[in-house]
Amino acid sequence: MTSADAVRRDPRRPEGDPADPGARLTHRQVMTVMSGLMLGMFLGALDQTVVSAALRTVADDLHGLTAQAWVTTAYLITGTISTPLYGKLSDIHGRRVVYVWAIVLFTAGSLLCACATSIHQLAVFRGIQGLGGGGLMSLAMTVIADITSPRERGRYQGWFMAVFGGSSIIGPVIGGVFAGAGTLLGITGWRWIFLINVPLAAVALAVIVRVLRRLPHQPVPHRLDYGGAAALAVGVVPLLVVAEQGRAWGWVSPVTLALGVLGVVGLVAFVLVERRMGEAALLPLQLFRVRSFRLGTLLHFGMAIGMFGAMTTLPLYLQLAKGMSPMSAGLALLPTTVANVAVTLTVGRLLARTGRVKPCLVAGIGCFTAALLVFATLRADSPLWYVSVGLVLMGAGLGASLQSMTTLAQSEVPRSDMGAATAAVNFFRSNGGTVGAAAFLSVLFSLAGTWISERLATALRDGPVRRLAEEPENARLLSGVLRPDGGVDLEDSAFLRDLPAPLARPFLEGYVSAMQVAFLAGAAVTLLAFLVAVSRVPDLRLSDE
Fold first, then answer.
1. Predicted pLDDT at 128
2. Rg of the Cα trace of the chain?
3. Where is this region: Disordered (predicted)?
């Protein structure tokens, strides 16, 4: 019998009884529990990206192109805010009942989204969906932490990280397929993005109700920290809105500055409330006295900046520079998924065998930083094999680092605070992802317009190119994007498909040059994370207890 299959038993209970709070489940029992948890995590992770490829189609159909960003922002805000609440609620009431409510909320939100008749309705319903989605991922990681030892944890969490990474990559592919379908069974294609969640959620709910029925749980007699939840919402919501909308409003506009100040005030109030609540706090501040938890959350935040920034920018590169459709761009990212799954499962076994987190953590963050540096050297005419090198490095880096960071953060946390701690990890990763996506896009569009104008002006000094631009059809296309002040309107890039190559090249080179700067900035952040991992993370051995 392996250590993973060993069972510590209360002598008063039958052998292998999972209701024993002191029992460790067998490998077969753990895998049974994971079958439902992975499906729940798949739903939550998929919905973070599946809408992105279809958003333009959805906005056109609902006549809300200018408000489309709120569809993403609403899900992000409610999912981020609810994550710590799920952790504390599950510590108090148990994982099963809270997980069931998360699935129910997510499913109800999905049905409402499929029935939306306006872009603002869809944004509200996405918020309801996010209330459920916030619990699907964090609770899955918490349950595995409950039923395994720290050393075994990496072995099983590797599967979750593979599901998380894979669903994040294939989300745009699925979204592109449904968005391009027109109608399916008499229903508008994009609505199936949400309807498909219903049967998947029903299966996940049936499995969860069955396999978590006798999950060991020792109730924590805490009251819920409503004041902390309110202060967190006041602090985080304005900052998330600024991260998503700041580029459109202007980073120094009155509304941006006002929301920024409100967010800071809310965060200060949150810290004061949490200090007063002590162990009953939504996010117990004493957790940050645990070195492994503090480092794990910090590294998650930094890596999420690079991860979500790259996942947001790479499809744009493939669609703009390579002329791919959203679905083709999603398929081109498959090397990342393959590398992610392979390395994730390998690292999980290494963690279970050796109990050493630091080597895998350092290697993973280093590999991901190398991937961002590869992307920072991409040109408009770079061959796909070169792009694939970066994609493989990215998948391998995420596969090695994500589960290692989560295992590190959980390794020294008391089981009574495991729900809050795991939720905190997901909370910081989600906020890091928001910052990363917003920062990459802000850098991209802030620089691209100027550089495109400069390159286009240079190109038009060439006689043949200037005559090409004066042809009626080409002049009509250019007039739609060239502003009277010499600037460039970047709201739509569809015209590039119809421009001759000499005229399209300045646009593509300007976009790609701006992307290079964004990737370099991301690499600088993950390099700092690498240095922290090398110098600050202890070379501890995970316990088998």
1. 92
2. 24
3. 1-23
Two structure tokens written together for 494: 């569809």
pLDDT band at 65 (very low <50, low <70, confident <90, very high): low
Q: Report the alpha-carbon distance of residue 86 to residue 64 in Å, rounded.
A: 33
Is it the case that residue 419 has pLDDT exceeding 80?
A: no
How many Cβ atoms sit within 10 Å of the Cβ of residue 249?
A: 15
Taking 3-state DSSP, the helix, strand and coil percentages for the chain, each rounded to the nearest 5, stand at 75, 0, 20
Q: Say how far apart CA 291 and CA 412 lie, in whole Å.
A: 8
What CA–CA distance (Å, rounded) separates 543 from 349?
Answer: 15
Q: How many CA atoms lie less than 13 Å away from 85 in the CB half-sphere?
A: 22
* Backbone phi and psi for residue 488, each to the nearest 5 degrees, phi listed first: -125, 135
Write out pLDDT tens, residues 443-470. Answer: 888 888 888 888 888 888 888 888 888 8
DSSP-derived secondary structure for 356-368: B-HHHHHHHHHHH
Question: What's the confidence (pLDDT) of residue 211?
Answer: 72
Q: How many CA atoms lie within 13 A of 357 on its CB side?
A: 30
Mean pLDDT of the chain: 80
The predicted model gives 213-227 an average pLDDT of 66
Q: How far is CA 417 from the centre of its chain?
A: 24
Packing angle, helices 384-410 and 119-147, rounded to 10: 60
The burial class, CB within 10 Å (0-12 / 13-18 / 19+), for 458 is: exposed
HSE-CB at 433 with a 13 A cutoff on CA atoms is 20
Q: How many CB atoms lie within 10 A of CB 490?
A: 16
pLDDT in tens, 107-144: 999 999 999 888 888 888 988 998 888 888 778 777 77
Structure confidence at residue 527 (pLDDT): 97
Contact, 275 vs 267, CB < 8 A? Answer: no
Rounded to 10 degrees, the C-alpha dihedral 409/411/415/416 comes to -40
Tokens of 413: 């946390």
C-alpha closest to that of 309 among 428, 433, 426:
433
- CB–CB of 375/520 below 8 Å? no
Instruction: Say how far apart CA 222 and CA 73 lie, in whole Å.
Output: 32
The per-residue pLDDT for range 336-392, each reduced to its tens digit, is 888 888 898 888 888 878 888 899 999 999 999 999 999 999 998 899 999 999 999
164 contacts 37 by C-beta, under 8 angstroms: no
For 382-448, the DSSP string reads: --HHHHHHHHHHHHHHHHHHHHHHHHHHHTTS-GGGHHHHHHHHHHHHHHHHHHHHHHHHHHHHHHH
What's the CA gap between 458 and 471, in Å, rounded? 18
Four-residue CA torsion sign, 474, 480, 484, 486: negative
For the ranges 224-228, 265-269, 304-308, the lowest mean pLDDT is seen at 224-228
- pLDDT at residue 105 tops 90: yes
Q: Place 19 in a pLDDT band, splitting at 50, 70 and 90.
A: very low
